[in-house]
């Protein structure tokens, strides 16, 4: 392993979007953990500025804690795990803001696919993540067998 | 900007537009025709009376909202104050009321839609119903996928609406003819008795101000903005309605005012020939916008109510799951949407049924809310500290109850019966489902049950009959929960728990927390039950024996969990525990793993926490270092309990700054007297705190330390305790942390 890749993966920020995404992201990240020093798990709560959100903020906070807890519980015994919950109107922007703030060396994420309709409605986060990122971005290949 | 500020990003204007945007909907666009036919020109007074009733209730909502800026609004206050039976009525009533209102708004949308474009009727559905169904489904869809509109959109919509209505009012004023208003029969051709039935009919136009309270937790500076937004929006809307309806009736004689699209008709009459077409189209578009925004806001508010009810387990929390892609409470929205569709299809032929059912259910909730306000004030809960207080208490909330229930008398028997069926349904729901699941008892129930001797027996029995099942367990006496995970520390922890329970005349709940590795599913762990239960049984039998030495009532339970410490917090909340006693090892075990969650947790302790770092436990010689920190009340209480129950010898230590020995001595004497420890040995040392504690601890057996700042427990769990001496001492150390006043309030109120 070259020193560059060690540095690149030194401190990886992983955004997780949901319960299932947290499990799958951990599974996808697991093969590369040897090279990773520290993982910061991040959940971004999307806020619409000056508008009432469809979901109550308290519920979103509770969920965030649960999702991040999964990452800690799954990876915590192998690598140091920090967690963050952030609010932002633009998920992608917030992910990078947090990556810079946490001093992460790279952002690793699992492209979540989704049908064309869902992408149209919810926005295609994957594409936007890899467009002009301020930090290196790794798209994790799906793990062969998902951990339940 | 901090996360907190981002989470609370609704300003005054946004809050105001929620209220106004919800209220200005089908009510003013659809009902003036129907109401004028029923009441004559005095229908203007009907609107004003509706505004007055709304205003009295708005004052109460403002007080409750500033005291408890929580999601759920009316339901939340009623549930806290009057308990889950009335909570069920308020929550389900508010929810169904919103579904009826949304169905009504959708019908209003349909009525204006059919004036704009032909819509076919299908089967037993009229063209208006078909339009309403399409609209209703669209509103539900938009909420399901969580359209990413910003707050600006709502502000623009409301501004646009006010502009359109203002334009109509101006032009209408030019065509206004007082003779048209009075008509042939005078102002009250049907008698003044028609005023209140008119109010009952149009009251739906005022539903919406209370919705501001359902998003109170997302408001900036709720103490100021919430009352201004609620009261302000009611005032604005009332004045606006009075002007608009007067002008409509001054332009079109009341017997001729359209039953379905009166504003369109009045616009056509008011605007000069060339402009009439454009004006009518603009007003119609305004009507569509208004009804859509009302329906949208109502669907959104209903999800908040479901959330609050789900959190208290009045309904299943399953409803509140957030869609992983759209970030919306999609199940709640689909269910509410289903109700709206059913109401449109079955009752949509008759606008009055929908609007009145919505009003009745809301009025019931308003009455309960006013009662809740009185209970909060009378029970004198120290945590109840609203920034805004209703004037002329108790007159205002009493008036709110009288006006809200009084208006029910003018609604009509059909709608009353329908709404009564829903209220009965809510009561049935409570006894069939919610009573077994929910925990909170409500201030009123607690008040009655803890004063059993002085209350009439029937009242106490009634309170007990309706109390949630969990309340029968708690029943007033204080509960000390001892969280056990290790047989080695069992006796030490039970001794502490038993001593405190005995001292306070309370009971012990011995809880075996079995932490299951995450790789093992809870089901698999339960399958290995035989092993587990043997171990658990042995531990809990020992625990029971130890508690019985103190002659205190003891209950036991075993919890299987992935989450360890988190589960202890959860159990403490569920069982309404007053004190948790746990081992240092148990707390440390979970350290790091769930740090994010735990940080949140330990910032908001559900009760007093005592964490014992055991080294040959012996409570006979207690050292109590104090700096008068906020948890020292608790550590002093523990010392008193040990002195009372196991004859412990207590010494109190204060470490003063160099040369301040005298003032230190004075402080300590006063502190000890205040905390019932005046006869304890008082030690004043100077110099390094850790060294002083270490020296004093040498010939003592137990050091009890009260947290001097927030988050002691969280640092224990994470292993970052600043006072490392506490880990290095040879004696046992007991850390005591009491929730901050703020957290006590949060515990009681959510």
From TrEMBL, chain A:
Domain (UspA) ranges: 10-140
Gene3D superfamilies in the cross-refs: HUPs
Domain of life: Archaea
Protein's name in the database: Universal stress protein
Protein species of origin: Halomarina ordinaria
TrEMBL record, chain B:
Pfam families: AA_permease_2, Usp
One Gene Ontology cellular component: plasma membrane
Keywords from the named record: Cell membrane, Membrane, Transmembrane, Transmembrane helix
Transmembrane segments: 12-32, 38-61, 82-108, 128-146, 153-174, 194-216, 228-254, 274-307, 328-347, 353-376, 388-410, 416-433
UspA domain mapped to chain residues: 479-612
UniProt cross-references to CDD domains, sorted A to Z: USP-like (cd00293)
Membrane topology annotation: Multi-pass membrane protein
This protein's record includes keyword Membrane: yes
Source superkingdom: Archaea
Cellular compartment(s): Cell membrane
Keyword Cell membrane: yes
Chief localisation class: membrane
InterPro entries the record matches: AA/rel_permease1, APC_superfamily, UspA
UniProt protein name: Amino acid permease
Source organism (scientific name): Halomarina ordinaria
């Amino acid at each position: 392993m070259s020193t560059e890749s060690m540095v690149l993966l030194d401190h990886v920020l992983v955004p997780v979007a949901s319960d299932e995404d947290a499990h799958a992201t951990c599974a996808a990240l697991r093969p590369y953990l040897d090279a990773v020093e520290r993982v910061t798990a991040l959940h971004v709560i999307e806020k619409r500025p000056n508008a009432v959100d469809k979901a109550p903020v308290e519920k979103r906070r509770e969920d965030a804690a649960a999702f991040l807890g999964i990452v800690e519980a799954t990876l915590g015994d192998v690598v140091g795990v920090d967690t963050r919950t952030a609010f932002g109107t633009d998920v992608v922007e917030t992910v990078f803001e947090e990556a810079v703030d946490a001093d992460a060396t790279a952002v690793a994420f699992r492209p979540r696919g989704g049908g064309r309709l869902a992408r149209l409605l919810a926005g295609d986060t994957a594409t936007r993540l890899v467009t002009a990122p301020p930090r290196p971005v790794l798209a994790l290949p799906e793990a062969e067998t998902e951990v339940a | 900007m901090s996360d907190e500020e981002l989470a609370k990003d609704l300003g005054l204007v946004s809050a105001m537009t929620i209220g106004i945007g919800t209220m200005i909907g089908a009510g003013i666009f659809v009902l003036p025709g129907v109401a004028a036919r029923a009441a004559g020109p005095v229908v203007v007074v009907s609107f004003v009376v509706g505004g007055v009733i709304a205003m009295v209730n708005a004052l109460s909502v403002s007080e409750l909202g500033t005291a408890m800026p929580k999601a759920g609004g009316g339901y939340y206050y009623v549930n806290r104050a009057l308990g889950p039976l009335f909570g069920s009525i308020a929550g389900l009533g508010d929810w169904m009321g919103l579904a009826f209102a949304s169905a009504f708004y959708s019908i209003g949308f349909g009525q204006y839609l059919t004036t704009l474009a032909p819509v076919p009727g299908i089967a037993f559905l009229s063209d208006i119903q078909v339009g309403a169904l399409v609209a209703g489904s669209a509103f539900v869809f938009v909420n399901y996928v969580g359209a990413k509109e910003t707050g600006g959109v709502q502000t623009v919509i409301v501004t646009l609406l006010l502009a359109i209505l203002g334009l109509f009012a101006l032009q209408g004023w030019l065509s206004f003819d007082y003779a048209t208003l009075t008509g042939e029969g005078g102002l009250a051709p049907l008698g003044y008795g028609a005023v209140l039935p008119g109010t009952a009919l149009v009251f739906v136009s005022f539903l919406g101000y209370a919705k501001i309270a359902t998003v109170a937790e997302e408001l900036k500076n709720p103490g100021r903005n919430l009352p201004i937004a609620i009261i302000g929006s009611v005032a604005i809307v009332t004045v606006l309605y009075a002007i608009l309806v007067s002008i409509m009736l001054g332009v079109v004689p009341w017997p001729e005012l359209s039953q379905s699209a009166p504003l369109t008709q009045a616009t056509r009459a008011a605007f000069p020939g060339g402009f009439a077409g454009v004006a009518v189209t603009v007003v119609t578009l305004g009507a569509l916008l208004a009804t859509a925004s009302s329906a949208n806001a109502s669907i959104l508010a209903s999800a908040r109510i479901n959330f609050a009810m789900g959190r208290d387990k009045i309904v299943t929390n399953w409803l509140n799951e957030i869609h992983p892609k759209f970030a919306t409470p999609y199940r709640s929205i689909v269910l509410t949407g289903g109700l709206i569709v059913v109401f449109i299809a079955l009752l949509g032929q008759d606008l009055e049924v929908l609007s009145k059912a919505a009003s009745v259910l809301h009025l019931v909730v308003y009455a309960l809310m006013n009662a809740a306000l009185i209970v909060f004030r009378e029970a004198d809960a120290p945590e109840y500290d609203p920034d805004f207080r209703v004037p002329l208490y108790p007159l205002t909330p009493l008036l709110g109850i009288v006006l809200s229930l009084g208006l029910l008398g003018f609604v009509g028997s059909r709608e009353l019966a329908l709404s009564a069926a829903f209220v009965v349904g809510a009561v049935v729901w409570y006894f069939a489902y919610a009573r077994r699941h929910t925990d909170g008892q409500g201030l009123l129930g607690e008040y009655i049950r803890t004063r059993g001797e002085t209350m009439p027996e029937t009242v106490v029995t009634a309170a007990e009959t309706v109390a949630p099942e969990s309340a029968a367990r708690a029943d007033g006496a204080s509960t000390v929960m001892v969280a056990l995970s290790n047989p080695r520390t069992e006796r030490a922890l039970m001794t502490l728990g038993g001593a405190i329970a005995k001292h306070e005349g309370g009971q012990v709940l011995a809880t075996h927390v079995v932490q299951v590795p995450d790789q093992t599913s809870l089901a698999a762990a339960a399958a290995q039950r035989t092993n587990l239960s043997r171990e658990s049984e042995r531990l809990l039998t020992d625990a029971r024996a130890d508690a019985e030495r103190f002659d205190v009532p003891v209950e036991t339970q075993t919890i299987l969990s992935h989450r360890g410490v988190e589960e202890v917090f959860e159990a403490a909340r569920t069982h309404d525990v007053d004190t948790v006693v746990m081992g240092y090892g148990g707390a440390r075990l979970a350290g790091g793993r769930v740090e994010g969650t735990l940080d949140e947790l330990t910032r908001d302790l559900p009760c007093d926490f005592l964490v014992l770092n055991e080294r040959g436990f012996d409570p006979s010689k207690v050292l109590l270092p104090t700096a008068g920190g906020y948890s020292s009340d608790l550590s002093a209480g523990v010392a008193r309990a040990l002195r009372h129950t196991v004859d412990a010898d207590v010494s109190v230590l204060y470490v003063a700054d160099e040369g301040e020995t005298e003032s230190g001595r004075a402080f300590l004497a006063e502190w000890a007297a205040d905390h019932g420890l005046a006869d304890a040995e008082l030690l004043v040392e100077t110099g390094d705190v850790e060294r002083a504690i270490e020296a004093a601890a040498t010939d003592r057996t137990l050091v009890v330390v009260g947290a001097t700042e927030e988050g002691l427990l969280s640092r224990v769990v994470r292993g970052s305790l600043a006072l490392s001496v506490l880990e290095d001492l040879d004696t046992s150390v007991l850390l005591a942390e009491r929730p901050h006043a703020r957290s006590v309030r949060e515990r009681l109120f959510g």
